[in-house]
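go over this chain:
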Amino acid sequence: MSVPVPENIALIAREVAIRWSDGTEDYYPMDFLRAASPSAENKGEPDLLGRVHGGTPGKDFSGVGVVGWHAVGGYAVQFKFSDGHSTGIFSYGYLKELAARLRGGAAGG
C-alpha cells in the first residue's frame, strides 16, 4: 500500500491540517507534533551498542506552535516550531502513523 502525499497543508489555530491525495484529512495539535519530532535532539541518538543518549522524553511542549514548514523531497515535511526547533523530518508515513495514534489507532483519515 502506498502512502498518500499532502495536497494541502494549513496552519489553523493550534493545529496543522493536512489534506492528503487519497481525499482524507488529518489534524495535528502543534504541541503534539513538537513532542513527536523524530529528530535526534528530541528522540536521542543510539551509540554502537544501541544505548540512546540525549533526547527529551516526557518534556512538556505545551504552547509550542508551528510557525512554518517546507517539503523535503517527495517524502516528508519539515516543520519549524516557535521554540526554534526545526531539525525533525516527518515522513508522510510517520505523519499518517501519528494521525492514527491521535484517532486511537483507527485506520483511515
Notes: The mean pLDDT is 90. The first strand starts at residue 6 and ends at 12. The helical segments are 30-35, 40-43, 92-102. The CA atoms of residues 14 and 30 lie 6 Å apart.
